[in-house]
Structure to design on (516 residues):
């Protein structure tokens, strides 16, 4: 899900962005106390370098309650969910109401923002409609084991053993199946943390995780802010180091925030980074020292499209520092270009965690016929290796090359990575004042011009001016986007030449390249 967050008026970034013991009732009380939310300011009051005694932690980094009116028809939790939806899905809702279509709606909104692979519909539609997929037996129409049908869990275990290069066969009893990795984040947060406790994550990160953790379990996030500067032990921009994790954890604990887990995204979204084996080991050892659970999201593991890059799965490590606190997630939405089929899987050796998550599978189950189709897909190793992955990697690489070559021609800096569907690009020099407010003004203007994008703050980036381009789309749309959008808005350093208020008066030219 595309996450577009409302911005504050400050370009500064807080060092910890979460509430201390804040719950739903407290949030609604704050809103009600301000007259239903009218004029309520976003409270980003904790800034890097300020003394702890002057810092304030709160949940408004997640959403902006300004102009929010609580509903008498909803519970406290319902009002919070409504507030989240209003502040995080504005662009996404606009897109679905006015989708671009070459024939039916040529003036609609172009979406290069949502992280979907649109390059392999031909391959997947053909495979998913073959005769072996069309099975309808009584067990598929009845209630399954809530962890998933055993035939599917066995197939997932074999699949992960092979593609994660596990040193020993993985066990089906450690596999749980849910309807997507978003549900897995929600379930894990609920069973690993109590309300008001927190999970540690490095920024920038996929913003949908915030909602997954907070809306169900009232679990917060502690941010380890990464930046583009290469200093100290860093060797690349936005590099995650143990020192940065240690600082974020200690800052949170100094304010009595209970941190229970660490989230790792590998390959990383939106950066495209792939963690080395030594980095993974360092992160896991850090978590073990502090008795933190580690939730490892490897949903892009088969979307490493360049042979020069090597992906290392946590499940492929010879030894896990703390296997009872290490939990690995994967799903088919990205690697198999079927985000509309909701399927995610968890692998954990901790049976207490497995059973607790399974108790929530009643709300997040995968229907029997879909479980059969997924099992058939995952067991077709020859087709995956000889047909699908070869074609998918070639198409991803070609699209990535096209977009990055155009960025080079235009002189736009970016991180050159080889995984995922996105390029992390640097527009900072084109922002006149270098604030997140300017990012949001530009984002809204692009949406007015039928371009769906999201600025770096949607991923809690600490530096204004970074954007994520989705390149996993058809060549003709990439060409249209680069041709009509980038030269107009980027060349001549146009944003530097115009004062901030004029961003609201940019010419209305149909834009065709979107950032998320």
């Amino acid at each position: 899900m595309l996450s577009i967050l409302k911005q504050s008026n400050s370009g500064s970034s807080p060092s910890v962005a979460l509430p201390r013991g804040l719950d739903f009732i407290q949030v609604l009380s704050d809103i009600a106390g301000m007259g239903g939310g009218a004029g309520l300011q976003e409270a980003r009051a904790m800034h890097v370098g300020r003394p702890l005694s002057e810092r304030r932690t709160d949940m408004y980094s997640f959403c902006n309650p300004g102009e929010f009116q609580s509903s008498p028809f909803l519970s406290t939790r319902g009002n919070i969910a409504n507030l989240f939806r209003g502040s995080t899905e504005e662009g996404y809702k606009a897109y679905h109401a006015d989708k671009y279509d070459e024939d039916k709606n040529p003036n609609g909104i172009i979406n290069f923002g949502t992280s979907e692979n649109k390059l392999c519909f031909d391959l997947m539609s053909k495979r998913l409609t073959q005769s072996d997929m069309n099975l309808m037996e009584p067990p598929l129409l009845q209630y399954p084991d809530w962890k998933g049908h055993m035939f599917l869990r066995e197939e997932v275990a074999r699949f992960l053993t092979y593609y994660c290069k596990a040193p020993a066969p993985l066990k089906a009893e450690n596999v749980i199946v849910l309807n997507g990795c978003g549900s897995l984040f929600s379930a894990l947060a609920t069973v690993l943390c109590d309300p008001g406790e927190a999970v540690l994550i490095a920024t920038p990160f996929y913003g949908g995780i915030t909602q997954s953790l907070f809306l169900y379990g009232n679990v917060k996030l502690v941010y380890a802010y990464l930046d583009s500067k290469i200093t100290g032990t860093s060797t690349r921009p936005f590099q995650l180091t143990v020192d940065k994790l240690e600082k974020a954890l200690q800052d949170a604990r100094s304010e009595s925030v209970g941190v229970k887990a660490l989230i790792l995204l590998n390959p990383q979204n939106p950066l495209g980074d792939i963690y080395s084996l030594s980095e993974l080991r360092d992160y896991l050892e850090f978590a073990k020292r502090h008795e933190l659970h580690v939730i490892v999201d490897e949903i892009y593991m088969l979307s490493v499209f360049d042979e020069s890059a090597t992906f290392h799965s946590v499940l492929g490590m010879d030894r896990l520092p703390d296997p009872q606190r290490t939990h690995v997630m994967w799903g088919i939405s990205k690697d198999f270009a079927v985000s509309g089929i909701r399927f995610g899987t968890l692998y954990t050796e901790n049976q207490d965690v497995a059973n607790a998550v399974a108790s929530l599978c009643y709300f997040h189950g995968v229907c029997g016929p879909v479980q059969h189709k997924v099992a058939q897909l995952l067991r077709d190793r020859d087709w995956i290796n000889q047909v699908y992955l070869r074609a998918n990697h070639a198409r991803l690489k070609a699209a990535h090359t096209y977009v990055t070559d155009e960025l080079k021609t235009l002189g736009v800096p970016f991180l050159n990575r080889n995984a995922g569907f996105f390029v992390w690009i640097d527009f900072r020099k084109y922002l006149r004042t270098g604030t997140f407010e300017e990012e949001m003004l530009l984002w809204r203007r692009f949406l007015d011009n039928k371009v769906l994008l999201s600025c770096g703050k949607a991923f809690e980036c600490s530096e204004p001016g970074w954007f994520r381009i989705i390149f996993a789309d058809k060549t003709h749309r990439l060409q249209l986007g680069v041709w009509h959008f980038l030269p107009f808005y980027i060349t001549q350093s146009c944003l530097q030449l115009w004062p901030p208020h004029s961003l609201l008066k940019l010419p209305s030219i149909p834009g065709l390249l979107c950032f998320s």
Summary: Residues 381-410 form the longest helix (30 residues). The two ends are 11 Å apart (CA to CA).
